[in-house]
Amino acid sequence: MINKFFSLILLCFLLSACTRINAVDFVSIEERSTHEQHFSAPTFSREIQDYVGLIVPPYPDNLHAVAGMVLPDSSGQWALFVVKNNETFMLWLIKLDHRDNEGNPFWMVTNGLILPPLAEFQVIIPFQCRIWGEFDYDLVVLATLEPENANSRYIDESHIQFAWTVNRDTGTLESIDNEGIDCYAETVLFP
């Protein structure tokens, strides 16, 4: 109950945007799947590059925030947002730029990726995963939460399609291999 309340408060706290754009080069991530079923890879693209440096709120007319979550252990300095542009969903890594006189946060987009259409039961899980048995609160995964795992919320390596780590030094989401990663999906960022 407290987790849900805290998540709701964080979501309300995070939503807002202005415009300041910088160009940044991105590397492509490789397409990987541990399932026989094929999953489209989230991609870094020119569309994301165009938003780097953008300060939100307010958001440009074509965008709206769908969900957001502050990174643990970041003192409220870093967050992930899921943003919708028409029918396209994006995952943004954002950094606190400043607060106004009333304490409202304004965030700067530092990196992101275009999300593919998610298959049934696919979810984005931030900050609740382990790598080789050690929790790493900078891990973010795209995984399948099968109905048989809905009660335990446990997701093993075989159900993780893609994984990233937040690099706070460079302000980027870096693609990593999902080997040795498992998660306890108490909360999902999206959908």
What does this structure look like?
This protein is mainly beta. It folds into two domains: 2-115, no CATH class; 122-184, no CATH class. The protein is built from two helices and 13 strands; from the N terminus they run ααβββββββββββββ. A five-stranded antiparallel beta sheet has the order 1-5-4-3-2. A four-stranded antiparallel beta sheet has the order 6-9-11-12, with no helix packed on it. The chain has a four-stranded antiparallel beta sheet with strand order 8-7-13-10, with no helix packed on it. Strand 11 and strand 12 (172-176) form a beta hairpin. The radius of gyration is 16 Å and the shape is globular. Mean pLDDT is 77; it is low at 1-39.
How are the secondary structure elements laid out?
Elements: H1 2-14, H2 46-49, E1 55-56, E2 63-70, E3 78-85, E4 88-99, E5 105-115, E6 122-126, E7 129-131, E8 134-135, E9 139-144, E10 154-155, E11 160-167, E12 172-176, E13 181-184
Antiparallel strand pairs: 1-5, 2-3, 3-4, 4-5, 6-9, 7-8, 7-13, 9-11, 10-13, 11-12
Order of helices and strands: HHEEEEEEEEEEEEE
User: Which structural category fits the helices and strands?
Assistant: mainly beta
Strand portion, in percent? 35-45%
Number of helices: 2
Oligomeric state of the chains? single chain
Helix content: under 10%
Q: Measure the end-to-end span.
A: 19 Å
Major β-sheet strand ordering: 1-5-4-3-2
The count of strands amounts to 13
- When the domains are counted, the total is 2
Task: Note poorly predicted spans.
Answer: 1-39
User: Which geometry do the CA atoms define?
Assistant: globular
Mean pLDDT: 77
Largest sheet: 5 strands, antiparallel
Gyration radius (Cα, Å) is 16 Å
